[in-house]
Design a protein that fits this description.
The complex is a heterodimer of chains A (232) and B (56).
Chain A lengths: L1 H26 L1 H11 L24 H31 L6 H20 L14 H24 L3 H17 L13 H40 L1
Helix pairs in contact in A: 1-3, 1-7, 2-7, 3-7, 4-5, 4-7, 5-6
Chain B lengths: L1 H32 L4 H13 L6
Classes of the chains: A mainly alpha (232), B mainly alpha (56).
């Protein structure tokens, strides 16, 4: 059982993580590098003169070590997500629900909502250099919000009665009504245009990556099950 | 009677691997996304931002 979870999670996480990492390098990294020019003070927003929106950025793959580390850590992160997802998938399958590549898309959407959209609804994906509250306080809020969203989505998917939908709605809204830790003052030197583009890109790639994790997880869970059965 | 005992032990044997996978998955996400040790933070910096984790 555990080897089936582990094997399918490794395949699903590594495959989805690799694609996510490459997409991030193409679509998110240039925005991040652009923001860092403001974070380091190399460019200054609201100076005497307007600043070009298209500065010379270091070319893609110019910093190989940095990009390679990003690829490794993205693959690791999505492997962690795949482990969580497949563990829960095995529970759902035990209760008689179908788990395969197609239903995996729904699991992926749910994962995106729980781990990206729910916390990001208030703590939007941060471009480097933004003002933010204490990192530990934000991490506590992040974990609490993700946990609440996971329970809520499970209730929506498998609860099947009005009370579970009501509890789910409360769990989804509560962290945002309570509010996330916010900075006392705004000191971010990065133009809002860059910050908004960064958040949009981070959400977009997150959605793609999660749908991939879900469908790969469902697919590999099935094919691993068949392989184990065949050799047993 | 015999089938009942079997079902109970099967579901008990089923929950341990699930728990272990959850703990392992959470551990990986905590390491890559949240631990603030300088070396880990620097290595995972771009990923933490791009994945929407609180970074620094």
């Amino acid at each position: 059982m555990f080897s089936r979870i582990l094997t399918s999670a490794l395949f699903a996480g590594a495959a989805a993580g690799l694609i996510a990492a490459l997409l991030q390098l193409v679509f998110v990294q240039p925005v991040l590098l652009h923001a860092e020019l403001y974070e380091s003070g190399e460019l200054v927003h609201f100076g005497a003169e307007a600043v070009s929106a298209h500065p010379e950025l270091p070319g893609m793959f110019s910093e190989l070590t940095r990009d390679a580390l990003s690829v490794i850590f993205t693959m690791l992160t999505y492997t962690g997500y795949a482990l969580l997802m497949i563990a829960l998938m095995s529970v759902a399958e035990g209760q008689g629900h179908t788990i395969d590549g197609r239903t995996g898309v729904l699991w992926g959407l749910a994962g995106f909502i729980a781990f990206h959209l729910a916390p990001g609804f208030t703590l939007a994906p941060e471009v480097p250099g933004v003002a933010a509250a204490d990192v530990y306080a934000r991490q506590v809020w992040w974990f609490a919000t993700v946990g609440a969203a996971l329970v809520a989505l499970w209730l929506i998917a498998f609860g099947g009665n009005l009370i579970s939908y009501v509890i789910a709605a409360v769990l989804l809204m509560a962290p945002h009504l309570i509010g996330a830790p916010e900075p006392d003052v705004f000191t971010g030197p990065v133009p809002t245009e860059i910050g908004a583009l960064f958040a949009a890109r981070a959400f977009g790639i997150g959605l793609v990556a999660w749908v991939l994790v879900g469908t790969f997880a469902g697919y590999f869970w099935q094919s691993e099950g068949k392989r184990v059965e065949a050799t047993a | 009677m015999a089938t009942q005992t079997q079902t109970v032990s099967a579901s008990r044997a089923g929950i341990l691997p699930v728990m272990f996978a959850v703990v392992l998955g959470l551990g990986i996400i905590t390491l890559t996304g949240h631990v603030q040790a300088a070396a880990l933070h620097d290595a995972a910096h771009d990923v933490r931002h791009a994945t929407g984790f609180p970074c620094h």
